[in-house]
Structure formats: C-alpha cells, structure tokens
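Hello support,

Our group uses your service weekly, and this is the first time we've seen a run hang past the timeout. The protein is GNAT family N-acetyltransferase. I'm not sure whether the cause is the sequence or the server load. Input pasted verbatim:
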Amino acid sequence: MNYPQIQFSEQLRCAKGERKSEIDLYQLQELFNISAFWAKGRSVEDLGIAIANSDPVISVCDGEQLIGFARATSDGIYRATIWDVVIHPDYRGIGLGTKLVETVLSHPRMRRVERVYLMTTHQQGFYEKIGFQSNTTTTMVLHNQSNLGYIPSEEIQLQESLGG
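Update from on-call engineer: The timeout came from a worker crash unrelated to the input. Re-ran successfully.
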C-alpha cells in the first residue's frame, strides 16, 4: 500500500447534468460486496441509477483501484442524507473514512444544509467523532411502495375523473 497514491475525487457533472467522469461500477459493486454487508449483491445497473441521482458522489482510489466511496442527496439548504459510506477493509484505520465523510460535508451542495442525516447499523461511534448525534425522534421508513398498493395522487385523480 503506497498512501501517497491515494486520491479523493468527485464525480463531476457536465452542463447537461450528465456525469463528466464515471466511476467504475464493477469496482464499486466489488467494493460493496467485500466491505458492506448492507450493500452486497447490488446490481451494476442499480448502482448507476443511484449515482446518477446523487450529488455529491465521492470516490477514493489507490492508483486505479477504488478503495472508498460515499454519496449524498440534498436539497442544498434544509436536508441532506449521506449514503453508502464505505472503505475497503485493507485501508481502514488510517483516517480515510473520516476524510471521506468530511469531503462530502464540505461539498458546496452540502455546506449550507441545516440537517444532514445518515443511517448506520454498527458505526455510531465513528460518526459521533465527526460530530453526528443519535436521533431517535425522526427516523421512519417506508419500504417499497409498489408492495404496499400505493397509488400516486395523479392516478387517483385520473381514476376519479374517469369514473373509476
């Protein structure tokens, strides 16, 4: 491991909103399979969709090898959520995870956000060192809406107007 080769980079967008430089989705899939029990088995196609709908997307590489990743979604002012923070096991314990989260938080899309959320199963202590606090009052989840029989309000209005 040659630490001076480690590079942090943002997946930038072009004027059209498309990613300027693409992350290697196969390496990302492998990184998740090795490093993240909660993300094992994600498809390359789904990872591409998640990245396309996230900003910022930060990757960490040692040479050409992807060794770290994180992404966020945000409205840029009130709320943001950090997702999929992962560092390859061989590179843990040297500060890369902290630097990765700090890089996400310092991004212009995140800097002014009033509240930044994240979910973690076993790493509360790590995030507390960065400044996150436990929050048991606002966490709720709605699982796959299609399984719950959810009908978007536009469809309900259309059905009502058609007499359905």
